[in-house]
Structure formats: C-alpha cells, structure tokens
Design brief:
Layout: E1 5-10, E2 30-31, E3 34-35, H1 36-46, E4 51-56, H2 60-70, E5 75-80, H3 87-95, E6 103-106, H4 117-130, E7 133-139, E8 153-155, E9 158-160, E10 167-175, H5 190-199, E11 203-208, H6 218-225
Parallel strand pairs: 1-4, 1-6, 4-5, 7-11
Antiparallel strand pairs: 2-3, 6-10, 7-10, 8-9
Helix pairs in contact: 3-5
Length: about 230
C-alpha cells in the first residue's frame, strides 16, 4: 500500500531567522537552488503523494503565489490560519480533517533531499506493519547543530522519552486521525499527542542515517548555506 496524502507545516513566524524572514516567509528561504518548501514538496510528490495540504499564516500570499506559479503535479490545498496560529497539533488536525487515510506530515525547517526518499519508504512500511503513528528520528550526534538536547529514544522500534534522550525528531511523521480522538481543543502541540501515544506504547519510529540539517536560526542558515548543498 502507498500513502497518497500529505501535509506541510508552513504557518510559523520564523522570528529566530530574522532578518531573513522580515520580508519572506521561512518556508521560502533558499538553500542552494531550492527553497525549503520546494524541498518538502518534492519529497512528498516523488514518493507518489498526490494530495497535499499546507497551513499558512505569516506572509501567506507569498506562499500561495509560489505554489500557483510552480504548478506541481499534485493537488495542493492551502489552509490559512488567519486569526490565530493553531500550534503544530492544531494545525495538522485542521489541515488534514478531510483525509480519510493515513498521511505524511513534513516540517520544512529540515533540509530535505533525495536521500530521505528511502527513509520515507521505511517509515511507510513501518506504519502499515504496526498501524501506529511513526516518527523519523536521528541521533543528535548527526546534527550539524550541536545544541539539540534530544527529544526521544528508540528501542525495538518503540519510541520513548526520558530525562536523557539521544534522538532528535527530524520533522517527518506518519499519522492517522485516530491519534486525535480524545482532543477537544483547537490549539495544541503535537507533544501532547506524542506523550499520550508513548504512555500507551503506540508510537513507533525509524532512525535516520542522514546528516541532519535543521534551519532554526539565522546563524544556522548561514552555516548550512556555506556548505554549498545543491541537492
């Protein structure tokens, strides 16, 4: 089976990326010859995903214009969080509410490349094997940014959290709407969902082998850009 639906989180304000984000939304920042959003879309479309939703907020018209001009080979729907940001969990729930099947969620803050295609395949295989939410994780030693303290641990494919965590969430996950069944709020973080799943041993994961490039500050953008990454 193949997952045919996907979502990209693109509603953040990008304050820590200023001044780059004073006039441009963070997803449209270029690294090499592609924007962060372009890289995320290519990852999904090359996987065979043909229905994609994107949540937007800050400088949303620029993202809409970018999507319109590129003419991607997928149905792309924009969900504008106009009045209030819904946080990660609320944003995902709102933008995927019409999906009837499992879906991939991508955070474009990570520098996605073709190298992640096989890892998305592995994540998809894991989802259909267990029918549980899946995260792509990476050892913090593989991160260019050494400030990450770690988000999770992984043992026998089961995701956990302790005081000492060795793995970072890459920003790639597979979900279905069952994970939101107990949620009554509109604004909430995915951390609350993950914690609930972990408590019940319902969160599984795959460990990435890729060098991890995550654009969370202007300083990190400059450092990554100096590497002359083109893919």
């Amino acid at each position: 089976m193949k997952i045919k639906c996907g979502m990209i989180l693109a509603a953040g304000l990008g304050k820590r990326m200023q001044p780059l984000t004073l006039k441009n939304p963070k997803p449209l920042i270029q690294v090499g010859n592609k924007s962060l959003l372009d890289r995320a879309l290519e990852l999904l479309i090359n996987h065979g995903i043909d229905e994609i939703t994107i949540n937007v907020h800050y400088l949303s018209d620029q993202i809409k214009d970018f999507i319109y001009k590129k003419k991607y080979k997928a149905k792309i729907t924009i969900f504008h969080e106009q009045d209030k940001l819904l946080d990660t969990g609320g944003g995902i729930l709102n933008a995927t509410r019409f999906f009837k099947e499992p879906f991939v969620v991508v955070n474009p803050d990570t520098l996605w490349s073709k190298a992640y295609s096989s890892e998305l395949n592995n994540l998809e295989d894991l989802y259909f094997q267990h029918k549980k939410a899946c995260l792509l994780l990476v050892n913090k030693n593989l991160s260019l940014d050494n400030s990450f303290s770690g988000d999770f641990n992984l043992r026998d494919g089961i995701v956990s959290r302790y005081n000492n965590n060795e793995l970072i969430f890459t920003g790639l996950q597979i979900l279905d709407h069952s994970v939101f069944s107990s949620i009554k709020k509109k604004i909430f973080s995915m951390n609350s969902i993950w914690n609930n799943l972990i408590e019940n041993n319902f969160l599984v994961g795959v460990e990435s082998n890729q060098k991890f490039y995550h654009l969370n500050t202007k300083k990190m953008h400059d450092k990554i850009s100096s590497l002359n990454i083109t893919d």
